[in-house]
Amino acid sequence: MDHLQSIAPLLAQADRTLTLIGARVVFSLLLVAVQLYVLRAMLRVVRSMLLSKSQEKALITTTVVFITIVNLPLAFFIVESVVRPRELLLYGPPLAYEPMIRPFAYLFFVWTLGSLVFAAASPIVMACFAVVQFFRRKMSGTTDDQSTVEVFDLSRRRFLQMALTAVASMPFAISAYGAVAARTGKVVEKVIVPISDLPPQLDGLTIVQLSDIHAGMFMRESQMAEYARIAGDLKPDIIALTGDFVATASDQVEPLMKALSVLTARYGVFGCLGNHDLFTRSEEVISRRFAAAGFKLLRNKNELIDVDGAKLNVIGVDYFFGTRATSSALDQVLREVSLEGTTILLQHAPQLFPQAAKFGIDLTLSGHTHGGQIALTFGDVIIAPARLSTMFLAGLFKIGDSHLYVNRGLGTTGPPIRINAPPEITHITLKTA
Question: Could you list the residue range(s) of the whole structural domain that residue 392 is in?
């Protein structure tokens, strides 16, 4: 029995490893199938261009070579899935190799996302085209004395080819735009939050929130330093850092803190941990570097600040894993800390805002969702993968007298691409309701 108990953890670890290998292999096969579909579509376009034999052969060769080169990281991902399935070197290579791998990684992610959108949208576009053609023929009709053979204008064919090429290239253009938008675009969002019974000493108090920085290959020290400069120029009373400081490894904390250590605020810089900080086991090094910079990492505790006699209570909690267990975990933390004064809760993920509202927390600051990161918008409707886990995607929410603000974050996870979800630094002003 003792022998079985000793090997049980090893068997569980092996089972998880086999599951991970299987998931990565299935995902790899899906990506390969998509690339074969895209290659077939591109070759059909080439063959429809009425080129000479030599020109057509040269263009076909160029197309095949290009798709092969751009998918070399996919081949590495497949090998890595079996050899070391718990690694993802394409996304988090050793620091020394980042400059060399970064261009290939950007190209791969841009191309792969564009290919997935292309593969998903093509059948829909073709079906719509077929329906339009069907009704066009029905509406045109013919009579007995009319010819049933239509003269096809070659200039019209050329126009249709150009239109088809333009439509087919749109997913890749949008994906490339998203890679640029992930590092540019709107940064500062100004928000006014009305707080009930806000002491006059806190009326007008300002908070600057940064979230989901994801220091790593796609968020370099120079970019983080620029964000720190922007945040510092806002001259806030408090700076709130709501987790996910690193992307894939604890050694990314060093460049992060070199960039952020210049941050200062009248009443201090406070932070909480996100899921990536815990996944990468970076909590201890983050805690040490925060202390060295004069920041306060709040791990399921609070800090009372005296503002001219009024009490401002900043509470920070770690990211909670699981689903049902998280509500009780937050309940326990909030029961054990002081809820005196005007309360601000730093909580990486927004899912538990209803729990915070139940305890009368005045303002909860969260991130985690990246605003969807890759989001489709139809008026007020936003479609994004993050919608599957929370209704609190981005912006200001309210339950009773409690408010939640969800920051879109600065970095990315997965593909280094943002669409309809620009990076954000939030400048919050508290006002009496």
Answer: 183-432
